[in-house]
Amino acid sequence: MLYLVPTPIGNLEDMTFRAIRILKESDLILAEDTRTSAPLLKHFGIEKKVFAHHQHNEHKAVAEIIRFLKEGQQIALISDAGTPAISDPGFLLVREAIKEGITVQCLPGATAFVPALVNSGLPNDKFCFEGFLPVKKGRQTRMKQLAEEKRTMIFYESPHRLLKTIEEFMTYFGEERQASISRELSKLYEETQRGTLAELKTYFENNPIKGEFVFCVAGLE
Asked: In the chain, how many domains are there?
């Protein structure tokens, strides 16, 4: 069996009892970065074989992992933070496991975009999750398409591209479009700023830009 196990996005208290049990029971743990996962596993007393599974090796590693699963091993996949396969490696392995008739289960748990969306105050009955926009090729095309999107849109963004992304959103969505930007979710310095895109640009031009960001933008009215 293949388990996808969410891990905390910042606060270790968000780890579930079931996630700890599954990791302890697994024969092998696949981690996006073994160095990042080591403190987490140590904290919860989980002593298992851990192999790296990330975007640079997942295509090569899938066949061997499928072989282990077919042999009856229980394997758990974790990412550095949050739910595997959500803007992180996992999709390829899940798809191949399903093709091979292997049981796949994803545990409920931490993911950054859900609290950011709920905190935003924007409509959340319907929304679309975009994750990270393309850095270069296809970026402008995607923004033109999203300019007509009526649902609340959710994006992930890194600190060094945040201001550029706000400026691009202002161009395609309009300066007065309502939005919300959350950072350091579940951590000590958690912060959510809300307002128009123009107001958010002014705020982040005058305040430190640190951490990973979840950007929620209202849809077209």
From this structure: 2
